Amino acid sequence: MKLSKPDFLKSPLEHFRDSLESSYGEKGQVFREKSVKKKMPFVYTLTFPQTASHGMRTYSYGVSFAPHPDQHNRIELFLEMDATDMAWAHIVGYLANNLRGDCPFLQGEIIRIGQQISSDSGLNAFVVVPAIEESAETQVRDGKKASPIHIMQLIPIFEQEVLTIQKMGLERFLTQIRPQLKNPKRKAF
């Protein structure tokens, strides 16, 4: 007989993880990063490996502990890529750790990395949007009484596509790249 921890003893991270794992029906891998900001808790990255039916899915947990004046909801980050390179998972934790409290992660916000994210991909920036992948949870709870956490998706882009997004609009741009949205080897639009 396998015993499980009662809900009232679980940490918010365990509630968050349980919510995602029950939604996906698989176990996620958790990475912990010490906070770069003083007096802030750790940042966690929850990664669900790539399978034949979906890409590697990664969620942050820690952005919601550092509110930004422009944020109206508690948020966390999400990224799904058709890749096995863990650089895609770790960039989510890196961005969450380094930008939380300073970046509101609002729709249309551009995050420039300044170098390629993965050795096999030229993508070097992100645009932030509300979760658009069917596989992404749009809201997750980290406790019974906690307010829901809204999930914001990171869409990898090329830095030179920023001008294209400004010219044609974010919605139209996303429609154009939708078939290649999770492809780390896609060509610039």
From TrEMBL:
One Pfam family, please name it: SUFU
This chain belongs to the protein called: Suppressor of fused protein (SUFU)
Organism, by scientific name, is Sphingobacterium lactis
For the Suppressor of fused-like domain, which residue ranges apply? 56-179
In terms of InterPro entries, this protein maps to: SUFU-like_domain
